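Per reviewer request, we include the raw input and output of the structure prediction for the construct analysed in the revised manuscript.
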Amino acid sequence: MRLPVVAAVALLLAGCAHPADRGPAPSPNPVIRHVDPDNIRRVRRDLPPGYEVRGVPGVAAPQEIWGISEAGAANPGRCAALADPVGGHSESAHGISGSGAGGTVYAVVVAAPVGPVALDHSLLGLCRQWSLTGKRASARVHLVDAPHIDGAETLGMAAEITTAVEGGNEIGSRASTFTAYLGNYYAFTTLVSDPGSPNPALAQQFAADLLVKSVAALRG
């Protein structure tokens, strides 16, 4: 029996349909590359000349550098994961800080407690602007462009921080933080500057570039 012309054409088109017509295929799992946390110390050579460099034991999340403990309250609440990807449960952290006329710079790598840590993409729309409040400090945060790093998801945040001090006064500071998700680790760099300083602050791009250098060092 001969098929009608319309039916035959429909069958032909169905057989030739491109896979994309059925929706995008799921992204493959990223390759987890080797990371040596001790190598974070190598980026001290990338800090500005004259900077005083030291270790930062115990610092395991960007919000700690912002002056807010893990007990800080985020609004919206889910955005807290951007400032502490492992929710206060890091196994270990390695890092350095450098202080000088252009501000204080941090480079830190943190081990995830269980399994790989990854960027939750649903937060990118929810947390374009959000806030984090602690006992003595609060931060107004917005997302900024992050540097590209092969084989790693990255995130950029800029925070305006207000900290209460003695006498009922408040001081303000700015922090630019960039994070790379590296499987069983995540790395971040932060530049903290004082808007009232007579010295010009390092550019936000410095912290972004330092993240790229940090990941390259960690992968060794």
